[in-house]
Amino acid sequence: MNSLCESSSLSYISTCERSYRNKSLLVLPVTRVRISSDVKKSNSRRRGAGLIIRASATVSSEEKRGMDNNNGKEKGWLQKGIAEFYDESSGLWENIWGDHMHHGFYDPNVTASISDHRSAQIRMIEETLKFAGLSDDSSNKPKSIVDVGCGIGGSSRYLSKKYGAECKGITLSPIQAERAQALANAQGLGDKVSFQVADALEQPFQDGQFDLVWSMESGEHMPDKAKFVNELVRVASPGATIIIVTWCHRDLLPTEQSLKPQEKQLLDKICDAYYLPAWCSTAEYVELLQSLSMQDIKSEDWSEYVAPFWPAVIRSALTWKGLTSLLRTGWKTIKGAFAMPLMIEGFQKDIIKFAVITCRKPE
Of 36, 72, 249, 304, which residue is most buried, by most CB within 10 angstroms? Predict the structure, then answer.
């Protein structure tokens, strides 16, 4: 059965990997979105793409109450779905891939073996820190870190050990928080690393508490990107580094008002599987940070460097261990597994971008 299941998809995966290796990196021009103090951002419907921007003068109090009510319902639905999805799937992921629940960083045009993938996930952390300008220099080491959307704490524990820093991780999943703390305690990090169930849009921390704000692949789950970025900035101390690594849709061309209908349809299917709200572009994240007067803002498309990841996840799911573990989880996880080829398609068609965005809060 194992070999039969694997052979049914190996040719497809090989085609995906060849397509990735042969595709040159496409960097689209950055579009600009005017953001000012008299503009309010409200989350769009979960369908579609990007952030809806409305002039506050055009929104009546009745409309605003209706918008807030709809957004509140959507937020509650998303939070429940996200928590249940990760409650179900985290054990499966840890059993096969370990404690880092994010993409790996790979050399372009190089075929990675299964044994390379966990080291690629560590490399993703290191490459991200390098891109942000954080070195191992003792004078530049962060002393307090928040891991927003921490999963089972892989990044939190790694960063704490690397820098000798205190780290707090937040997640919507009670099972993730409990497992993350158990792993920290087992590794002798219980006095430095802690985890709790909390909302990234309403973080339970004081203003200016952390000198490294870390968000590794959690921004895509946030229904209000403006509030998400505001919270990251709020909890950052003066001079702190803020790092956002997230899935985005491609930047729009100057002649475009939105994504093409077929692009939106593909992203909608992914949203349904992974409990994601509307996608936004890297350019929109940059504009949000600019509107908050952040400094040293940098962004880059790393899609080329994560190319082998989803084919590798599919391959691991098609092993006997992967299949039997998947069937023991639940429908949300199984539904997510069926959507994995859609992620490959999105990257291949340059609809999905793997974005890294960093900045510094002014002193």
Answer: 249
Cα gap 360→305, rounded to integer Å: 24
- Output the CA–CA distances (angstroms, integers) from residue 112 to 64, 238, 308, in the order listed: 51, 40, 7
State how beta strands 210-216 and 193-197 pair.
unpaired
**CA–CA distance from 66 to each of 49, 60, 225 (Å)?**
21, 10, 19
Residues 6+ apart with CB under 8 A from 270: 276, 339, 342, 343, 346
Q: Tell me: the pLDDT tens digits for 196-238?
A: 999 999 999 999 999 999 999 999 999 999 999 999 999 999 9
Asked if 155 and 183 touch (Cβ cutoff 8 Å), the reply is no
> How many residues are there in the chain?
363
pLDDT tens digits for range 18-32 = 444 444 333 333 333
Instruction: Say if CB 173 and CB 90 are below 8 A apart.
Output: yes
Asked if 248 and 279 count as a contact pair (C-beta separation under 8 A), the reply is yes
Take residue 18 and report the two structure tokens written for it: 């060849």
The CATH code of domain 70-361 reads 3.40.50.150
Using only C-alpha atoms, the chain has a radius of gyration, in whole angstroms, of 20
Eight-class DSSP state of 281: B
Q: Domain limits of the chain?
A: 70-361
Looking at every residue in the chain, the average pLDDT score rounds to 80
